[in-house]
Amino acid sequence: MRLRIFTEPQQGASYDMLLAVAKATEETGFDAFFRSDHYLKMGDVDGLPGPTDAWITLAGLARETSRVRLGTLMTAATFRHPGPLAISVAQVDRMSGGRVELGFGAGWFEAEHTAYGIPFPATARERFDRFEEQLDVITGLWGTPLGETFDYDGRHYRLSGAPGLPKPSQPRPPVLIGGTGPTRTPRLAAAHADEYNVPFSSVEDTAAAFERTRAAVKAIGRTAPMVYSAAQVLCCGRDDAEVARRAEAIGRDPEELRRNGLAGTPAELVDKIGRFAEIGAERMYLQVLDLSDLDHLELVASQVAPQVA
Predict the structure, then answer these.
(1) Once rounded to an integer, what is the mean pLDDT over residues 131-156?
(2) Those residues with Cβ within 8 angstroms of residue 293's Cβ, 6 or more apart along the chain or in another chain
(3) N or C: which end of the chain has fewer CB within 10 A?
(4) Cα Rg for the chain, rounded, in angstroms?
């Protein structure tokens, strides 16, 4: 089991704060630093100093770190055209020496689109149609041999004579697709993803989602391996008092977090991570909401990670 740190900067974080967390992630031995890709806060927080762009952030972190993987959970297909996004991800991958992963989704948060003037397709079907075409375009551009060009004639996106440059450092940055949709999400993951992620769900619901995607993988005769992973909000403490303090800092109830997240003492976390491992999860994304609490990362790195590695 690999443990990855996952942040939500739209809730309130500067680049300097994200840099501190990313460096702590690397120094304490976690596998990766991921961030959300959102432009508007959610819930009862001030969100100050305001949003940071995911791929600009990761470009900076690519030069400030040397080991950890870097990625998004999840970049919204509604935010960027697929050609420029393929260029951005490839460039950041080169800047990092081949450590980038693209978590990619159809987009869902309408309010942030309205706030910043980003067109938001009226139906989920259109969002998924655009998402699927973007997957075709991005991976097609990365996979175009040097000296050749890429053409694409879709309903929403059309490319002609694209050189497919720049190339990422990796032959293809891993693509993550997540969600719990019962039909289209498993099919898209089976066709396009290197990793399938289930966010903020119980062990039982995560297991069911994994099985749907395994069935989709089998149905298309895929032989390439699929990584299965889960994301859970993190709240760890050496004792109940420390768990309660960290839960209060993020506006949550400790018992509710124990039921619906990855919360409790190190021993409790080891037990629950073990349950995710039993259903086939190979990576856990630990959603860290209080980015000023770097001791939280140190605790998990020293008392949880060695027991689940």
Answers:
(1) 98
(2) 246, 249
(3) C
(4) 19
